[in-house]
Amino acid sequence: MTVQRNNNRKTARLWAIMAIAAMMFIVTACGGAKGSTGNQTQGAGGQAAEPKKEVKSLTVGYLNVMDDAQAMLAFDAKLYEKHGLNVKMQPFESGTDLIKAMVGNQVDAGVLGFTNAVTWASKGAGLKVVGGAQLGFHSILVRNDSGIKTVEDLKGKKLASQKQGSTADIVLNGVTLAQAKLTNKDLQMVYAEPAQAIQSLAGGAVDAAFVFEPYSRMAQLTSPVTQIYEIGKVWPFPCMVVITSDDVLKKDRDAVNRMLDAQKEAIDMLQKDPQKSAEFITKRFIEGESFKTQNGEVKATTVIKESIQSQTFNWEITPDQIKRMQEIADIMIAQKALDKPVKVEDILDLTWQKQQQAKK
Asked: What total number of domains does the chain contain?
């Protein structure tokens, strides 16, 4: 009898163990076990969520100017991380330095002037424009006591602008001065970086300055200067674009697409919520919480918000913009800034953009 009871107890324990094991198998098979293997997690309605993306690394080059706000905001607002990227931001003093680093495989992609892509494409570098960024904003500021009211009035005056061959220099000569029937020989040109240009203007060393944001807005707040011209209102053009190399596209197009996804989201924020955007990126331009102006202190974020609002950010490159790009390339030929003609469509890869447009 004792032996029978022991056998019954063993059988009961065995059935209990088997029942528990079966229940654990069922839970695990449904994806609900906390320690289940794989990257899937339980989603809404008990369905398995998408597998977590592999984190990829990219080095993104940029210039610390408002033209490159999308690249900086995507980093500061952690949008790159959101799209599964580990991004290293690499600052450069000029678009020329950035593009050289890209050609030398030191950076994977960057936001920079379209003219840089054209210049290096004409030299045979394997580069592609893969997305839009910003339509050109370059304003002419003059001292209030200069008597200068129009671009034509610049004749014989000192004008500070970026170095020869830069995007600013190309459109200044090819568009702004040309439309006023002037050449740079009709002016006294002073080539300087934007910060130095507005300092020279404030100090009276030059009569006018051709600058971009946030320098234009900051100068108008701190000095007795007035904006008499802004090229984006007269001759809109795709100034800044997203550029990468053929090698990077071939190696990991998905990483480039994720970067563009993040920057598109950044552009949406810049357009719809400039205040929130300014709160993320102000520290890149202004130290401290406030900015001293002629009329007292202004919140630093307000200055940058207004700079953002003066810009036109756009991730799409439209057919009209492609035509304008070709015009710029032709201007560069006329200015002898290019060794040979470039067909702009040959340096465009709008695969990601077409995918975005198909989702609309």
From this structure: 3
